[in-house]
Each structure stands twice: as structure tokens, then as C-alpha cells.
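Sorry to interrupt, but I need a hand with the structure work. Go ahead and set the record down below:
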Amino acid sequence: MSTKATRTSNNSVHEILCINGQSALSDFRVAKLNENIQRIEPDIKITQSAFRYFIKLNKALQEEEHARLANLLLSGEMAIENDGKHFQVVVPRVGTISSWSSKATDIAQACGLQAIERIERGVCFIFEAPGDMDEEKFTNIKQIIHDRMTESVLPKSFNTEDLFVQHEPQSLVEIELISNGKEALEKANTELGLALSEDEIEYLCNYYEDAQRNPTDAELMMFAQANSEHCRHKIFNADWVIDGEPQSDKLFSMIKSTTEASPDGVISAYSDNAAVIEGFNVSRLMSSLPNREFVFHEEPTHIVMKVETHNHPTAISPFAGAATGAGGEIRDEGATGLGAKPKAGLTGFTVSHLRIPDYPQPWETSFGHPERMASPLEIMTDGPIGSAAFNNEFGRPNLLGYFRTYETSLPDLPDNEIRGYHKPIMIAGGVGNVREAHALKQDVPDESEIIVIGGPAMLIGLGGGAASSLDSGSSSEDLDFASVQRGNPEIERRAQEVIDRCVSLGKNNPILLIHDIGAGGLSNAIPEAVDHSGHGAALELRNVDNAEPGMSPMAIWCNEAQERYVLVIDKKRRDEFIKICKRERCPYSLVGDLNNSKQLTVNDDHFSNKPVDIPMDVLLGKPPKMKRDVERIKRTTEALNLDGIHLDEAVYRVLRFPAVADKSFLIHIGDRTVGGLSVRDQLVGPWQVPVSDMAITATSHTSQCGEAMAMGERTPLAALNAPASGRMAVGEAITNIAAAQIGNLGKVKLSANWMAAAGHPGEDANLFDTVKAISSELCRELGISIPVGKDSLSMRTNWQEDGKDYQVVAPVSLIVSAFSPVEDIRNHLTPELKRINERSKLLLVDLGQSSERLGGSVLAQTYNLSGGIAPDIDHPSKLKIFFDGIQALIKEKLILAYHDRSDGGLLTTIAEMMFAGHLGVSLNISGSAEKTLRYLFNEELGAVIQVAESQLSKVQDLMDTNEMHWVEIGQVEPDEQLTLIEDDEVIFRANRVQLQRAWSETSYRIQSQRDNPVTAQEEYDRILDQDDPGMQVKLTFDLEKRSNPTRISGNKPRVAILREQGVNSQYEMAAVFMRAGFEAIDVHMSDLLSGVDQLDNYQGIVACGGFSYGDVLGAGGGWAKSILYNNQLSDQFAEFFNRKNTFSLGVCNGCQMMSHLKTMIPGAEYWPEFKRNKSEQFEARFSLVKIESTNSIFLAEMTGSQIPIATSHGEGRAVFPSSEVRQHAKPHIAVRYIDNYGNIAERYPENPNGSIEGVCGLTSSDGRATIIMPHPERVSRTTQNSWHPNDWEDEGPWFQMFKNARKYLA
């Protein structure tokens, strides 16, 4: 430990404390780094990695405070002396503040360490190398050990003051337009990366010359963001001339016309942050103010739908880009109307080919990649973790997604150009709910107050809106750095809690207007909020919460620091609103007022000037209109030559292709159950195979109605026929969502995300033709609307290599997301083949009507074949007939299994159904070898359904009545073999295990690169167990029917639903306790600290799951230590735990927290701590557990039961300090993970975290205190379970836990 005193600019003395930390990286992570290092520097390797903590103090710590700080940082682990000759330390990028730092500082201050101003953390690497390491060698190694976009590498002798330096505020910059003319503006355009067009430069010159003043850099950056392609969609609002012919329609007007033609069910379209469509009348759970009791409100509840892209940020910094993409879309939903609630998410990625080391694929050819952008493998390694991490920590399940790789050369392209996705597509979307009274924005009176809530301003994400409007490679690398963003989901959760509290007040909601802060930061969000009701505003820049005072006025105004919202409230409600913010510990800034001036004025008290002083109509008025004068280019097409393709090889190539292959590596990293409203996630059946066609959520914790989401995208087809690719994307979304019980196709609403390389020859015309084909034709004929969408029109990557220009151009890419209300969430279809007591048949419902077109197919891509004819929707009426027919079959419950046909064709559809059901299939085939390939691998729209033989005639009659084109193709077999039969001869046979191993190999390879290779291998080898029986459920008690629940007379006991900042599972916990007969109260730790509430008001307390303090300093550790180091709280908790006739429950994060409090819980002294999962990854699994015999009051009469349960955590590995303690703990072990044979689970993923002997739940000696890592509250209703036996009633077996607690207090 070392200390250094520094003197700041205001002459106050600060100390910087340096503390050596624990080991930073596991052995396998160090080994992976060394493997990469030794590829370029064979004699150098990492010998040690350890954390080092840097603490900025405003005064010296006392001895006891030193000890407390060490305990916080080290959590009992051993500090490592990190010293050596060759030494480098990786820290957050100098000049920025990491989200880890923000949370760690919060914890320290909550633990009474007020002398700490900020804690930062670095990783020290010690290298072994012969002799001296020169700068060149260090430079090579730096690229391996850090993320250059978000981190810095510093030498051993670096000045620790650099981490905390606070500069004097930079002054405002004026651009000398008046003296230097237009050239000054053109120079600023380049240097600031404004992406202004020539017309816009002229427009601004005219305004400022007329006003006889110079523009400020803040005004120019604001104008650039507010009027960027990203924000204003200029191309979609442009006039078009194609091949010399003026077009009568604009792109945006064609899309909006779908809602004009089919307005039913649309409440809000293209007038808000997200679209709103009609939902249901349900009992919706809310925590009401001021008494904080959870209450069900019976009321109309509508559906919020939104899908965004975050392509450029993900290309340059995959983790941060994808994380903030997810976070930005969440804010869009939350800022809808007068405040809404995000519920469930979707994520998608399209990249060029992966090129996984040591796993070359025949379709991967050599083509370069610019160094400044992340490679496809880096994007797919880090990007999905970023988006999942944000969703997880915010508390939104991710239930849906897609992943595609595409890269190809076309016959008429030059050698230095290909089609592909070096600039990736990153899709983030989701569904939410909004109260009917809050569904629409409203006019706001002037003199209302403008407030910013959420995180502080930071020097991150500057100019991101403009950067996203540029082709990748056309901006400078410095501007790429400037536009990198940083996510802090825990603070976004706090802001959402403020919104939720306001919304719970119903007509008394203090929010008059809400707008999320995204591209352009305050400079875009505040003007849009001000402009909503035609007002002006006067603002004070220095009132903005600012973590980096050295920023210039332009940077404060325009930075894209995440997790922020602009709110307009009635001044009379200010104190009430601030009280809500303080309770949720959500930062807020009172930045100014609306007025009737129609002028936007931003004052700067520090410099006594005005960084912004501009009329609103100049900023957001009518800049020059865009005109696109383009030509169509007819591409050379060739017939698809299938000569030389052998069926055996083709099967395995197609199954390994990423667009077809197992997506497990993308799915298990994301929580799928948080919120307790998930019904259908990606995983299907008792073996939990990720093949679901769509996602379903329940509208409320008591309803049987809900919402469905599905996706469709067929971008490779656009290289052949762009309009066909768009039609097929819509068709795929519809054939996917058809598996839910929806009723009328008109209830389905679409989000359309349009991507193209605007300006590249032929691509503008392709975009126009595709928009027209979808909007003016297909959707209008189907009677469905597109009330929301997004465009990203810079999908081209340019770079130079060895003096030669290269470019990768994405084809026109339409990603369609379908949303719909669901009539009955219990009645939906999955691809799981069912084992029944009679024979069953497979029917193909073929919308292609035997066209069998293979152009752009996965088969063609795996053999690098271009040409052919793309599949298409030739008769839109047939798609409507298909949907109506499937809906009728669902309603009659005549279908056993359903799976759409898309990527990989019929072969893939059948194989995935086999994987889900562990059954075999025999298919009947006829024709030549080429005909067989076309039959098996064409990707025409359609679906395969499994039908019991006894129901076959009913199904056929219904389909014939609906004029559906169907054919019987084969039957389900018990032998787990795929058998293809032609003229009574077997032409192909493969075991399900062989096929599934091929299908899962891509996922396994990426997991081996990204996660612990031991756990990746264990999961991959699990497929080899042909006899795996799937989850074997055993109940030792009777399930209760919800229609006749047990009732206990008397007053309802009160249970405190405890949460700390970052906890996100309180709603599902309150819901199940309320169903069991409790009165549930929302108790924030701030309520206990302020004396608003105390624990002696309750008979039970439950510590909920989530990410308290973002899981910084050990999951649950910060929460626990904020209790242990606060006498008021520690006394209160100790008294509660010792009071008889009470109970306490800790789940997930609450389990971790209570394990740290074991010294104050009677009979809990042998509880373990919970450490990072063995896989070193967040694990979201549907796991099987066994309940052991203990005194737990929650688990009474449940001993011996084997029940599936939701697992969602990153640090759930139970660790005992010694084998002796573990022996003492055995009588208290209440729940263990088991495998499908009923044995204690020792291997991954049956044991998802590596806990010794599968330990995942414990109780105290007297049974009043129980902790459990998985989530019983999220699966207490049968509909909440990803899979369940058919004989379960409405209430699932985990409801028994909560009934037991109620009986205990009877």
C-alpha cells in the first residue's frame, strides 16, 4: 500500500492511496492471453495478473477506516504483491470514469468512508521475458491485453494522479465564420466530425451571417446531431428520382401508409420514442406511493414495441457498443408516453465470417479487415456479452434474437469489393407495457421545469449520432474514440424506478413529458422536448450533473453519457419529485424552464456567456430538403450449379453454418426470467434446446393473456433480389409468430429496421424498391401495419491496405420484428417433437408451393455459390391463409409440434425438431440427386407440423377448408435417427447425436474461446449421452389448483420486499407472496436508513435478486457491508433475525447478501460464500434441483422433490472456507442441483456454477432463515416455466414454498 499527496487547482490537498489487490484473471484466461502473445512474441508470457486499487481521498483515513476499506476491496482474499521487471497496468481509459468506479465509490460511501472521493481499479500484468522488452514488443502486447477503445496501458512508473486529474473547465470555442467565411465552417465540419452536407453548411452560413455573429462549437455540434441522418432520417424523407423518373412517394410516407391503411389496434405510431398498440384489461402490479404497498390495479394495459440498431459503436467497441445499444432501446421504451415499463428484450447480430482459430470452414475465403474495427469474431465474442450484461443488470429478460454471418463475392464486383458485414448489424429491441392514461404524449404548459435524471455528464460518446451516419472508415480514428460510449445499467435501473413510482400515481403522475437522452446527448433530447409543445427554454449549463468538470461547454451539452432522461414536470410538484429521486438514489439536475420565447438559450455561469442562443425553428425547422437521384443496376445472375455437392457433406456443412447452428453461446449469458413475466423463451422441452420460433410474455403476474415477439431477416437474398429479401423477412416473422395464439393477422404489428450502403451504386434504388415492395404492396395486402422502425444507411466499410483500397458493402438489409397481443399464453406451439401413445405424422405446409428456389440459401453460401433465383412471396394471400389456418389448428389443439422453414431449409427444420424432442424422423423423398438437394435445402416460407395419426383427417380437412398447400412428408420415429428414404431405399441415415454435435460445434468453439474451456467441453460432451432422459420431475406433495387455493383466515402478515439500488426482482417476489396471502411492502434500504420504515413492522423479510451496486466488490457484498458498517442498520437486522415467529428469505443477490450476514443470523454460521461461476460467465439456465430434508419453514413437506427452477447469476458457486465447515453445514443444505438421472450434479451445465456437491440453497438451524441461489419466485406459476409436465395446474410446485411461509405464520 502506498500513499501520495497531491494539490489540486483549488489548492486543497488530496491523497491518492494505492492498494494491491487479489488475483485478477483465472489460469485459463492467462493461458489464452499467453497463447495470443506467443503467436507474435514467442519468448514473452504473463506470469501474474492482479488487481490494483487507486483511491482518491479528501482526507487521511483512520486506522479502522483502512481496515474497513481493505475488507471492502479484498473480501477476505489475499492481496498479491505485483512487482517485477516487466510490468504494465491496464486501467480505464485515462480521462474517463469507469462504471465500476462509480459503483465502488457508492459502496465505500454507504459504508461510512466519506473521505473517499473515488475508487478506481486497474489490472497489473507481470511479464517474463529474456532481457529488456523494447517499446515495439510492448506495443504488440498492448493490443492483446486491453481494449484500446475503453482502456489505457500504463508503465510501472506511471503517475497515479493521471487517473484522477481534474482539469479547469475548457472554454467555449467560436468558429470564425464572420471573418473567415464558409471555409471556417467547412473546416469545423471535418475537424469535429459533424457530417454536415453542403446544403446544411450553406444553410448555417446564411443564418449566422444574417445574425452577424459567429457560431459556437456547441451550436454546431448540436445542429449536426439534431439534423444527422441518424436522428432526422433525411434519406427516408427525401424526394426520389430513379432512372430519370421522379417518384411520387417518399420512403417514410410509404411506411406510414401501412398504419393509415390498417389503423386498428395502433394507439401511437411514429410520434414517440416507441410505438404503442392495444393490449388487454388486466390486474397490473405496482408499488404505490406513499405507503409503498404492492397493489394490483385492474385497468387497460397497452403494449409498447421498439427495435433499435447500434451498428457503428458495436463495430469499434463491441462490448460497450452492444451494451449501450440495449440500454438506449430500454430507455426508448421507458420514455414512451408519460412513462412506460420495459418488459422483455430481443437482440440480433449480423457480421462477416467468423474465422475461428483452429476451426477453418470451407465457406471462409481470405479478405482483409481494417485494424481500427473489431473483427467479426471479436464482435461475436464481446458484443453479445455487452448486450446481455446490460439487460441482466437492468432487469430485463432477453427472450429472442438472431445471428447471421454473411460474406460473399459477386460475379460483377471488382476484386477489392465484396458483400458482407465488416460493419455489423447490432439489433436491440423489446416489448413493454404502458397504462392507458399514460400512452400518449401531451402538450406541456410553459414555465414548466426541465429536469435531467440518471447518470452524470461524462466525456464519452461525443458525436455518436453523426458518427453513426458516416461510412465506417471515412471518419478519423480519434473521432471513433470520441464516439465510444460506456454503459452503467444499474443507474438506468434507478432512473426507471423513478419513472415507475411516478407512473404508479396514475392521474397524479408528476411527469408532463419524458424523453430519453441518446444520440447527441442533451443537445438533441432537450430541444426535442422543448419543441414538443412549440416552446422555448432557458437553461443553465452548470446545473447539469457533471463528473468531469474539465469538459468544454460543447462537451457538457453534447456528450452521450448514457442512462439519462429529460423530464418536464410541473414546478409545483418539484419537491415531491425530488423526494422520489432521493429515495431511489437517482441523481437529478434542475437545468431550466420552458418559456414562450421559441428561443433555446443555454447560459454558462462559469464563463458568463451563452454556449447556445438559437431560435428553435433554425435548429429544428426546415433545413434544405434532400433529393436522391439514383439508378438501378441490374446484376449479372447465373444459374445455381449444384454439381459435385454430395448430400452427406451438405447436411453437415449446413448444420455448422452460423445462421443455422446452435445459438447457445448467445442465449445462456442472458437472463430469461427476471420480472417473472416470461412464458416462452428460446429454450424448448425437457432437454432445453434453443429452437423456439418466437417469445411470449404475460401481460401481468395473474393474467393468461400476453404479448408475442418474433423476428424475420433474409439479408443474403438482397444480393440477388432486394425486394424479395424484404418480403421474405416479413414472411419469416409471420411464420414464426404464428406459433402463438393470436387470432387475427391484423393484430400483428411490425417494426422494420432498414440498413443499406446509401450512395453506393445501385443500393439506393434497391432500398427504394424494397421499401415500396414491403410497405405499399405486401403489408397493405396482408392488412398489417408498421408503426415503428429505424434506418441505418451507412453500411459500408472502406480502408486501405498495402496501398490498395478495399470496401465491404452490406446488401440492403431489412430486419423485421413482429409484435402481437396473445389471447392465451398457455396455448402455443414449440418445435419439440412429442412422444405419444400412437404414431404421428409430419406435414409440410409449403408456401413456396414446390418452387424450391435456392438462390442465397445457406446451402449455396456453404459452397460459395452465387446466382440462382431467390425465394419470394409470390402470392401474399397464401401467407394470410397460412396464418389463419395455423391459428385455427392451435385453437383446436390439433398440432403437437410446429417449426417454421427458413435458414437451412427442411433439413434444418426437421433436425431441430429432433434435437428438441430426442426422437427420430423418417422422410420420404423422390427425384434426382439435384431434386433432393433442392427439396431438403430450399428456404421457401413454410412450416412443418407434427400431428397425431388419429387427428390427421381433422387436420387435413381444416387445412383443405382453408386452402392451405400441404403435403405429408414423413413420420416421427422412436429411434433418434434421421432417415431419408427414396423409393424404399435409405439414401441417408444419421443419429441425432451426430447431427446435434455438428449443429452445436460452432457454439462450442466460441464458448471455448470466450469462457472456461473445461465447462465448454462438458456442455458439448453432454450431447453424447444418447440415453439422457431429460428433466425428471418428482413431487412429494400435491399440486394445488389455482381455482381452489388454500385460504388461511386472519389478517394478512406483512412481508418486507427488501431491495437495494440495482435490485431488480422485487415485482415477481411481491406477486407470489401476495398470491400466498401476504401483504407485500416495497422496502428500499433508503427507507430504513431515513427512518421512514423499520423491520419491526414486519413478520417476514425477503432480500430480492438483481445486481445490488452492480455486483461490484463481490455479488451481494456491497449490500451486506452497507448493513454491517452501519450501526443503525446492523442493530435493526440483528434484532429481526433474533425475533421469534419471523422468517427471512434471500434469493440470488439476496442469497449472496444474507450469506455475508451469517454472523448475525442464529444457526447460519456454516453458510458458504458465493463466488464467480466456474464458467466465468453469467449463467441463465432452467435447472433441475432436489429438495433435501432440513428445518426450512419454506420447504416443509417438500423433501425429496425434484423440480425445475430458474437459475440466473454470475456468482453462484458455493465456497466453504474448509472441508470441516462444509461437514458442519451438511444438515443445513436445503437444495442441490441434480442431473437428469437424479444424481447430485457435479458437471456443467447441470451444475451451472461449479458449486461443490451441487449446493444451491441452505437454511438456518431453526429453519426460519433460508437462502437460495436460483429463483423459485420466477417459476411459481406454471406458465412461467420454460418447460413443464402436462399435468401441472395453474400454480407450479414452487408456489408451495410461499404457502408454507404463510402456514408458518398462521
Observations:
- Residues 7-11, 464-469 have pLDDT under 50 and may be disordered.
- The longest helix spans residues 763-782.
- The radius of gyration is 30 Å.
- The longest strand covers residues 294-309.
